[in-house]
Design the sequence.
């Protein structure tokens, strides 16, 4: 989790940790104007290559076989979560956001 006056970046895995709850409880003023952008992990073949070169012990899920292929701008192929897995992930993250930040808005999801 990273805090910046204009952004709060939260890894979805830490939303339910006790320490996260304590941190959020100490940021009461932030709750009123907080917005979220939910961005799922996606990668291209080139991005995978760069990640593995720079971070050889990386534990990111970069298994192309477990992903769905999507074509982005200019026809570039990228690997994304399958629809069912993506929807479940977004459901769980949104539920945690609503629980911890009831006044916050999700402005973007991909």
Sequence:
């Amino acid at each position: 989790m990273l805090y910046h006056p204009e952004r709060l970046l939260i890894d979805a895995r830490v939303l339910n940790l006790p320490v996260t709850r304590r941190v959020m409880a100490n940021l009461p003023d932030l709750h009123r104007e907080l917005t979220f952008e939910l961005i799922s992990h996606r990668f291209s073949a080139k991005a995978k290559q760069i990640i593995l070169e720079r971070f050889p012990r990386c534990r990111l899920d970069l298994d192309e076989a477990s992903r769905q292929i999507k074509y982005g701008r200019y026809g570039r192929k990228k690997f994304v979560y399958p629809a069912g897995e993506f929807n479940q992930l977004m459901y769980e993250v949104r539920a945690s956001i609503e629980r911890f930040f009831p006044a916050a808005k999700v402005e973007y999801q991909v």
Q: What stands out?
A: Residues 1-8 have pLDDT under 50 and may be disordered.
